[in-house]
Design goal:
single chain, 296 residues, alpha/beta, Rossmann fold, five-stranded parallel sheet, 12 helices
């Protein structure tokens, strides 16, 4: 039970307690801040990425593809890994270029892939042939002792013809083989099919599916509670079965939609003075969203 007399903001995360008495404008801005909230599937992927970096050099290093529908938290996992890796790098300058992160362009081919890599590492990318760009990428990554290449939106390769898709897959195999480089692809469910379309990559890639945010996972409630504790609201929110059932009913098993709904409710709780989330507020915010969507 919360003892409001000793700590009226005991329901808040320590990182936002000092903001509970700030102006409404400051608190509204804080609600929109990005926070990483630890949860088992995301933490497991991050652990696996670090394992790939720390493996001994191998001729055929393992790789992973992480797939899920949109709004399941793939980009948040990449951002969290980058932040943790940056913290480790600050203690070991020799490791500073060990990871390169790119986003597959909407129209991805071999040349565009090389250009994205060069841009990500801050290397010049002159207008030249694909073969020349390939040599530049291999040279730059080798000099930097890069161990892991992360490619977000990997499913973009599926927008190409089958022959063009195979060129992209062959490029990934080449970079991995030539540099002893692990690859971590993130994308929609189609990314799994892309990897499985190549026999060699299918043997080398571990496939990880991010689960739905539904009732069977106890961590979903934990994430909701942790997120609400990061809203600088002056009254505690009760996250009980009724609250969770309605949240899941409104948002489905999609983490991004769920967290976005909580943020909308938190902003409303500050503006209307209720200072906490409730089932009634969830219903009101959802109804307002429907009216806006339908122009009513």
């Amino acid at each position: 039970m919360i003892d409001d007399t000793s700590d009226p903001f005991a329901h808040l995360d320590d990182r936002v307690k000092d903001s509970a008495l700030a102006t409404d404008a400051s608190r509204l801005a804080l609600i929109s801040s990005d926070w990483w909230i630890s949860y088992p599937p995301g933490d497991e992927v991050i652990t696996r990425l670090f394992e790939l970096i720390d493996l001994p050099l191998r001729q055929r290093p393992p790789s992973v593809v992480v797939h899920a529908p949109p709004n399941y938290g793939k980009s948040a996992i990449i951002d969290r890994f980058k932040a943790l890796y940056a913290g480790r790098v600050s203690r070991d300058e020799a490791d500073k270029d060990g990871v390169v992160v790119i986003q597959a362009p909407p129209t991805v081919d071999e040349k565009r892939l090389y250009l994205e890599i060069l841009s990500a590492i801050g290397a010049s990318a002159p207008e030249t042939t694909t073969a020349r760009l390939r040599a530049m990428v291999v040279n730059q990554l080798r000099l930097r002792r890069t161990r892991l290449l992360i490619i977000d939106e990997l499913q973009h390769a599926l927008l190409q013809r089958a022959s063009a898709q195979q060129v992209v897959l062959n490029t990934l195999k080449y970079l991995s083989n030539e540099l002893g480089l692990s690859i971590a692809g993130f994308g929609s469910r189609e990314s799994k099919a892309l990897v499985y379309s190549d026999e060699h990559l299918a043997q080398r890639f571990e496939v990880i599916a991010l689960p739905a945010w539904d009732k069977k996972h106890s961590w979903v409630v934990d994430v909701v509670r942790q997120r609400i504790a990061l809203f600088p609201l002056r009254r505690p929110t009760v996250v009980d079965r009724r609250f969770m059932n309605l949240l899941l009913q409104l948002c489905g098993p999609t983490g991004g939609r769920m967290l976005a709904m909580l943020e909308r409710c938190a902003r409303s709780a500050i503006r209307d003075g209720s200072e906490r989330l409730s089932v009634e507020l969830l219903e009101a915010v959802a109804l307002k969203g429907e009216r806006l969507e339908n122009g009513v």
